Amino acid sequence: MEADQVLGGHPEEAGGDDEAMLWSIQEALERQTLQIGASACGATAVVDVLKALGVDVPPEEADRCVQTRLRRNESPLPDYLLSRSEAGATHAQLIRGAEEAGDGKVAGRFFHLHPRRRVRLVAWLAGWIRRGAVPVATMNMQLAVPEGEEVPDAWHHQLVFGVAANAVFMTNPLDVVSEAEMHQRLCSESVLLVRREDVLQRLTPDCSLSDVSGGQSDPRWEALDVEGQVRKMVLEEEQESDQPKTTHITIPAAYSSGVTLFALRQSELGQELLAAPELPLL
């Protein structure tokens, strides 16, 4: 594997030390922003990105700029599911939000990690962090769930404040995960699992199931046959059976898994980041 393939065009970084930290763990404890509101992990990450780049912005301003979307918990099932598919923010909202909140001083560049890429994740992140870039990971937390733990009900954006051999350090919450675990969550199709109880409790007598897929403009709702998945759950409720029941339905998600790197727009690093090619496919 060639060095420039491993590190997205930085052969000088190849084979180097995998350790690079924006903040020490103690600094991260003191400086990290805890979740600023419902579904606002993206806006929370943007606050810390700007902080790391020397641009201080009030959390509510970052949230306004990111335009965090909320779940519509009181809506009928079709609209509730649509709100679940786009709750929070996409990487594009994070980039626009950081640019706006940072008064144009900050630029972001998203790197897709699905389909799988030819990259050593920790070495690649270390190469950019050492040069001053600030990474935010957009991950499907419903993958690589530790055995015995409940499947989370959302994707998550987290600022990466450092990496070491086989370890990635993140904020909100302060956490360290292995490279393999991180890679799994960063290499996901754009889908979301919705719990059985969240579906069934919104099935009212006047709810038209044909609107679950048919009422959506995105063709992925039909392709995933979300309506058929809901009907299967309804049938399971009506049948007295000892068979295990479906635990989740799968719906399209607005998010893409990968890493957004941020830097000061007018810096050499910022310009290089914006011109960097996508990571090569495996």
Q: Provide the domain count.
A: 2
Strand content: 15-25%
Helix content: 25-40%
The CATH superfamily of the largest domain appears as Phytochelatin synthase, N-terminal domain
User: Rg from C-alpha positions?
Assistant: 20 Å
How would you sum up the global shape? globular
Number of strands: 9
CATH class of the largest domain: Alpha Beta
Q: List the uncertain runs.
A: 1-7, 9-15
Corresponding CATH architecture of the largest domain: Alpha-Beta Complex
* Number of DSSP helical runs: 13
What integer is the average pLDDT? 93
Structural class: alpha+beta
In terms of quaternary structure, what is this? Answer: single chain
* CATH-assigned fold name of the largest domain: Cathepsin B, Chain A
State the distance separating the first and last CA atoms: 11 Å
Structure explained in plain terms:
This protein has 282 residues and is α+β, with helices and mostly antiparallel strands. The chain folds into 2 domains: 3-190 and 256-275, Phytochelatin synthase, N-terminal domain (Cathepsin B, Chain A); 193-251, no CATH class. Helix content is 37%, strand content 18%. The protein has 13 helices and 9 strands. Strands 1, 2, 3, 4, 5, 6 and 9 form a 7-stranded antiparallel beta sheet that branches. It has a two-stranded antiparallel ribbon with strand order 7-8. The chain is globular and about 60 Å long.
